[in-house]
Write a structure and sequence with these properties.
The chain is α/β, with parallel strands linked by helices. The protein has one domain: 3-Layer(aba) Sandwich (Rossmann fold). Helix content is 55%, strand content 9%. It has seven helices and four strands. The protein has a four-stranded parallel β-sheet with strand order 3-2-1-4. The longest helix has 16 residues. The two termini are 23 Å apart.
């Protein structure tokens, strides 16, 4: 598990649907082995599919999930979520709960985790910056 980039739901959606040329251009430079998603992102993708069933989209999502690393949201991720949320509160900044849960498998401020010092790719540039501030410590 050597993912360097953990995609949030919006970024994964862009990767799957290819609706953002700028995002596709950036993503094309990154080996698929360096891309991951949290099981929280997988759940959100499957929720979207359940709302609007499409066999073609289901195949595309399943293929995407097979190509990337899917990281569990386990007790260790919950621990990192707590550290991230507390760190952002100390900075006077918060993210959406789902984005903080998605970041749970990442390593922050020298802690050990499934993903070593990854960057969470969101569709909100300011949110990504705030995550980097906490991650770098």
């Amino acid at each position: 598990m050597n993912a360097r980039y953990l995609l949030d739901t919006s970024a994964a959606s862009y990767a799957i649907t290819k609706k953002s040329l700028a995002f596709d251009h950036h993503l094309a430079k990154v080996p698929m082995a360096e891309i991951g998603v949290s099981t929280v992102t997988e759940a959100e993708l499957r929720y979207g599919l359940a709302r609007r069933p499409s066999p073609a989209l289901q195949t595309t999502i399943d293929t995407f999930l097979l190509a990337v690393t899917v990281f569990p949201w386990d007790s260790e991720a919950a621990h990192h979520y707590g550290d991230l949320r507390a760190g952002l509160e100390r900075l006077g900044q918060l993210l959406g709960s789902m984005d903080m849960m998605i970041a749970g498998p990442c390593s922050f401020a020298g802690t050990d985790s499934h993903i070593k010092r990854c960057g969470v790719q969101t569709d909100q540039a300011s949110e990504g910056r705030r995550l980097d501030e906490v991650m770098v410590g």
